[in-house]
Amino acid sequence: MDTTSEEFAANKEAMLAKLAEIEAEHAKAIAGGGEKYVARHRKRGKLLARERIELLLDEDSPFLELSPLAAWGTDYHVGGSVVTGIGTVEGVECLIVANDPTVKGGASNPSSLKKGLRAAEIAAENRLPTINLVESGGADLPTQKEIFIPGGRTFRNLTNSSAERVPTIALVFGNSTAGGAYLPGMSDYVVMVKERAKVFLGGPPLVKMATGEESDDESLGGAEMHARTSGLADYLAVDEEDAIRLGRSIVKRLNWHKQGPAPKPDYEEPRYDPEDLVGIVPGDLKVPFDPREVIARVVDGSDFDEFKPLYGPSLVTGWADVHGYPVGILANAQGVLFSEESQKATQFIQLANQTDTPLIFLHNTTGYMVGREYEQGGIIKHGAMMINAVSNSKVPHISILMGASYGAGHYGMCGRAYGPRFLFAWPSAKSAVMGPQQLAGVLSIVARAAAANRGQAYDEDGDKAMRAMVEQQIEAESMPMFLSGMLYDDGIIDPRDTRTVLGLSLSAIANGPIKGAEGFGVFRM
């Protein structure tokens, strides 16, 4: 790759512009409820959600934030009024969930719920202890119809985690009321901050209305009461910093051990500069690029053993290490998946399962090839083989959407519906049932045929307007921020951070055992 070429410079300029857009949206999540509510929170002597996380984590250790753009494109605050991510506490990788009380008192809305449930799914799949930093007014009541029924899974997940011997810890800094009271109630360990934590099923007004009883916050659900009388609090903290200290002490005594393989102790950094990754993907995704250029800047020592390089060349497959962890990689080269690529992928996935090797999928595909020749050649059968292999593979999968990820190709390359442990997108990524022009064109052909069947003249001006509208809509709905807002990825990342994000993900995955499938479904031959 020529990093001095005009093409590279144009690609880099386009990527940096997209990164600036993403950063501006991230800033909204970081800003919380805005200056007014942040100032009010600080005036009460409280730490912000991200400050609590920073104090909780081991010094200078990374934090892999998840779903930071949740709720983007909705009426809710970007970020979903909660911060989730993976960080190291006393040497133990933990899933951390922190309510942001500067956004509607940390109340949970539909986006908050989806984000929290996705975090719980990641914790369960990767055997990560969970630490909840609690300060929430409970459900955002006007949206109760969307969160009450599915919201019960939040508490079910806590009890399931405990049953699997994966600890759950609640550090309660403020309100945890109504249904939210079950969050500490169902955690293995509970720390409450003196004179700050309030945990009750019904506050004084509700108790008055329901029973006629007069009560106050402290006697009803204060930290001291729960520490001395009810026994709900295992530890009573004098302030927020003390609560975090106690939380770290709990983790230190968990006697936690990873069940997966340890990484190789010595590994080389890539021989090619990861900074180059911002100039690889063209602004126009119709222009192909060589994924080997990406692989060379991500894997250890830029050492990649390609598998079947001469067969099915539009899909690159091979073996490498990332931060000392062995991986298999599947990367789209020319966009389209043919029968050869599908069969190659199927065999490669089976080999990875035989050797208990995690798989990384690098997406840039327009889908499986269509047309008479390819249908007669069995593209449906061969595509189904690949999807079967992906569906029934038991080794962990990580997907990175670099460019296009359209149609059934998104499925075959382990899209969200196929359960990758983690799925991240580059700012250049697009995902939809098909490209905007193709989708609009299909609708136009169908409408034209329907008019002909009715014996009516076709409205060409209307067709032109319809195509433009559909193209614009599909283009907007294919963009990574839109998809991230819907929780269809775990975050949009800077391409230059890909190696780091993969390393953190693989390390988190290694908390649990890694074992391949012992059998697959019926492959149509």
Describe the model:
The protein is an alpha/beta fold. The chain has three domains: 8-252, 2-enoyl-CoA Hydratase, Chain A, domain 1 (Alpha-Beta Complex); 274-429 and 492-509, 2-enoyl-CoA Hydratase, Chain A, domain 1 (Alpha-Beta Complex); 434-477. It contains 19 helices and 16 strands. A hairpin with a 2-residue loop joins β2 (82-89) and β3 (92-99). α12 (339-354) runs parallel beside α14 and α16 runs antiparallel to α17. The radius of gyration is 25 Å and the shape is globular. The relative contact order is 0.10.
Number of helices: 19
CATH fold-level assignment of the largest domain: 2-enoyl-CoA Hydratase, Chain A, domain 1
Largest sheet: 7 strands, mixed
Q: Calculate the mean pLDDT score and round it.
A: 93
Structural category: alpha/beta
**Spatial sequence of strands, sheet with the most strands:** 1-2-3-4-5-6-7
Percent in strands = 15-25%
Please estimate the helix content.
40-55%
Q: What kind of oligomer do you see?
A: single chain
Number of strands: 16
Uncertain spans, ≥5 residues at pLDDT below 50? none
Domain CoA carboxyltransferase C-terminal: 21-258, 273-516
Pfam family, one: Carboxyl_trans
Keywords: Transferase
Organism: Amycolatopsis sacchari
Characteristic key phrases:
alpha/beta, 19 helices, seven-stranded mixed sheet, globular, 42% helix, 2-enoyl-CoA Hydratase, Chain A, domain 1, 525 residues
